[in-house]
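Recap quiz, item 2
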Amino acid sequence: MTFRASHLLGIEHLHSTEITTLLDLADQYAEDNRKGRAHRDVLEGLTQINMFFENSTRTQASFEIAGKRLGADVMNMAMQASSIKKGETLIDTALTLNAMRPDLLVVRHPHSGAVDLLAQKVNCAVLNAGDGRHEHPTQALLDALTIRRAKGRLHRLSIAICGDVAHSRVARSNIMLLGKMENRVRLVGPPTLLPAGVEEFGVEVFSDMREGLKDVDVVMMLRLQKERMDGGFIPSEREYFHRYGLDAEKLSHAKPDAIVMHPGPMNRGVEIDGSIADDINRSVIQEQVEMGVAVRMAAMDLLARNLGASRRAKTLGVMV
Amino acid sequence: MRLYFKNARLIDPETGTDGLGGLFVVDGLISDPVDVDEVIDCGGKCLAPGIVDIGVKVSEPGERHKESFASAGRAAISGGITTIVTRPDTDPAIDTPETLEFIERRASIDAAVNVLPMAALTKNRLGREMTEIGFLLDAGAVAFTDCDRVVTDTKIFSRVLTYAHSLGALVIGHVQEPGLSEGGSVTSGKFATLRGLAGISPMAERMGLDRDIALLEMTGASYHVDQITTARALPALERAKANGLDITAGVGVHHLTLNELDVADYRTFFKLKPPLRSEDDRLAVVEAVASGLIDIICSMHTPQDEESKRLPYEEAASGAVALETLLPAALRLVHAGHMDLPHLFRALALNPANRLGLQCGRLSVGAPADLVLFDPNASYRLDRFALFSKSKNTPFDGAILQGKIIATYVGGVNKTKGLANA
């Protein structure tokens, strides 16, 4: 048992052995899910609250299903429609919820670092379901599991992350995770969508799609975060698709068995051609969604096992 | 009242002296040797001119719960600061002679140190219409500034500079190009990317400075830059000085002693404006203070209550309290060997006094006996709740500081004695 974390706030603070432990368990859950084998005793009697301060359908549903499969009592709170509108601060919201004694808190928030802040104030396990441009750890873990199952390993692979890296928490978590597992990571995108200082992350940076995809094992496309655009990052969607959208011709520069990934929801015809997304020989996009449930089951299972220890430590005033 | 400070390690920035000696004070002024009523034994500790701190935010009027003249005065005394030069970015802004008189009246009643007010450069700090610079000068404003807001319309700014120049008024500017800075809360780079925070290119500072230098060439105005915090801005400053423009520059103590990595896991007490910089920038700016290119070190004292800081990083308010930590933090530059004590006090006392035309900031005969007695070596761990400021938002909470203020004298009167009863 080598999973010591009491929260899942990001990939940054996870050790590679913790990542492997989590993926191994998720792999088992993925098989059991396919066989319809239930595990309703794992989180039995525990309360899971999903707090989404930002709209989400898929991630929230995935966490909800994961919790229910493991027997947790799951509650969804649409935070946009609640007390935030009445001027309550994040910390007060956290303290209020904490008083209801949940065991697992799944949080998405539009501001980077907000989930870390909240985790300092509550006495339960917190899972980051995405904070601003910072991290989205379960997405990176489900991507890793998908890659491992498709490629048979999660090291010494060449992986291209393409598109709007600057605004993407998915990209940040993936860069960290894939780096920790000793893969070669390339970032491909227009320079206006690559964040500052990115060359110091131990990645290779390309602004040409064909060069960037040359001989890679995995092509990971990112959603063009239109709602995050302040404006003026790219000239137009159609020019973006022409230069950076993944189509058959650009994909032909990757290895013949390269897989195509996308965290969803996709903008067909903007960052990815519909025929590529639907190509069952190349696209693992549906498998990513499936692995999402398994990874979240594993994450909540492991955190629940550490729950007793971390709560005891907290009442004793020990840092964990 | 005639005083003699004996057995003191005198630090005089004007003459560059650092040596054992004594100092006579008669009726609040430093004097030649005379017969005295009282002898104060300094025990070999440092006696230096009191600090003149340009750019202190006292939150009166508008947010007195964050800082009042009484609490700011106590904090200044506790930090060895004898003159605070207040910022006009209050609510309402200090942009009329009437509001300026309010400041002077409140300060004279409540503050234990000298308070010199600055006034806004444009009405309501909106950058559209100039304030009554003449009336405000007559009412006692020592400088004019819109604080952290930039007058973006260069035509308006050039007129304001021209008008201010005709009256001999000092203008203080904030040189962060607003377009490039907008929306950012940290300096762009690896750390910003890692934390997923929107970054500001350090180039924004150089662009802001370049623009203002061009306007100074046009207008000839007297101009002080509130904070220079990046290496890239320094060559432009050096050229402007070499070309004979009437320009000086300051830097906040936090940018001399902390860097962007101190923000760590979103610690909002380290959120400043401009944001903390890279270690390379910090070292370049320290070097510029040591060489005299940057003239003035200030606290940029900005009180914020707990509620403004207990928020996600990008939503939290900017600024830090620093009156009480200015000298101990600045002493890090001496302890690290970047400069000697007389040089440090040139930046803390002499240069700001000269820039504002004040007699203080030196130990020469005839200067006001605004003095700080301190032990540069005594170390202690800072507890933010022990601060006299009403707001406790210091980034040095829990840090080891080396340098303890023993007593602060304003006009020859020991003001530290009054603190215990406060």
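The longest strand of chain A covers residues 125-131.
Chain A has a mean pLDDT of 91.
End of item.
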